[in-house]
Amino acid sequence: MPRLALPSINPDRCTGCGRCVAACPEHVLWLQAEKANGMGDKHAVLHDVPGCTGCAKCVLVCPFDAIDMVRVPPSP
Ligand code: SF4
Ligand code: SF4
Fold first, then answer.
1. Given Cys at both, which of 19, 45, 66, 68 links 14, Cβ 3.0 to 4.6 Å?
2. Rounded to two decimals, what is the model's pTM?
3. Nearest ligand to residue 7 Cα
C-alpha cells in the first residue's frame, strides 16, 4: 500500500517522553538531543524516512499533540 503521509514532529510541543518511539512498529523514531554533545532537551525524530509506513500510531500515542501527519505526494 502506498504511503500517504509522514509524521511531522513539532519540537516546541515534544517533551521527549518517548511514547512514540516505543509505539512505532517499524522502529524508525528515536530520541535525539538538541546539542551535538548529547546535552539539551530531547525530541523525537524520524530517523528512517523510507522505513516509515505512515501508520500514524505515533500520532495516536503522543499525549502532547506534538505529531501531525503530513501528506506526501504519491510516488511516480
Ligand atoms: S507513522 Fe507509523 S511507522 Fe511512521 S513513525 Fe509513526 S508509528 Fe512509526
Ligand atoms: S510521544 Fe509526543 S511528546 Fe513524547 S517523544 Fe513522541 S512526539 Fe515527543
1. 66
2. 0.91
3. 1
